[in-house]
Amino acid sequence: MVENEPGLDPLTEDARLNSLDERLRRAKTEEAIRTGAVDTKGDASYRLGNRVLAELIGSMVGGAVIGATLDWLLGTSPWLLLVLLFLGIGSAFRNIIRISNQRSK
After folding, report:
1. Could you tell me if residue 36 is inside a domain?
2. In this structure, what DSSP letter does residue 8 have?
3. What does the protein in this record do (predicted)?
4. Domain that residue 61 falls in
5. How many alpha carbons fall within 13 Å on the CB side of residue 96?
6. Residue 70, pLDDT above cutoff 90
7. What is the total count of domains within the chain?
């Protein structure tokens, strides 16, 4: 008997309200970033860690590839590979120390 009574149907979620909520949330986030209220320290630390990792891997792989190529061309295997690999490692550590001594902004 209650099911047949006229009245208001329960409201379903409106796509326009969901869209408005999403736009408001995005606007608040952008405003917080613009005013500096958001802590971006975590992002800076993540980027710094990736930079250090790239320096370490890139220098070692670069030295090894160039050394192996020169060894193959000149027939001096494995000496240039070892020398350039250690130079790459030294360069990586020098760059990492230089990065770690920079002041954060």
Report:
1. yes
2. P
3. A possible function for this protein is to guide the assembly of the membrane sector of the ATPase enzyme complex.
4. 15-100
5. 17
6. yes
7. 1
Any domain includes 73: yes
CA distance 68 to 61: 10
What pTM, to 2 d.p., does this model score?
Answer: 0.57
Is 88 part of a structural domain of the chain?
A: yes
Residue count of the chain:
105
**Coil, strand, or helix at residue 28?**
helix
Rounded Cα gap, residues 70 and 67, in angstroms: 5
Task: Name the token pair of 86.
Answer: 């250690």
Task: Return the structure tokens found at 22.
Answer: 């999403």
**98-101-105 Cα angle (round to 5):** 115
**Would the pLDDT of 45 be above 90?**
no
Report how far residue 72's alpha carbon sits from residue 81's, in angstroms, rounded to the nearest whole number. 10
In a domain, 95, yes or no: yes
Mean pLDDT of 32-60: 84
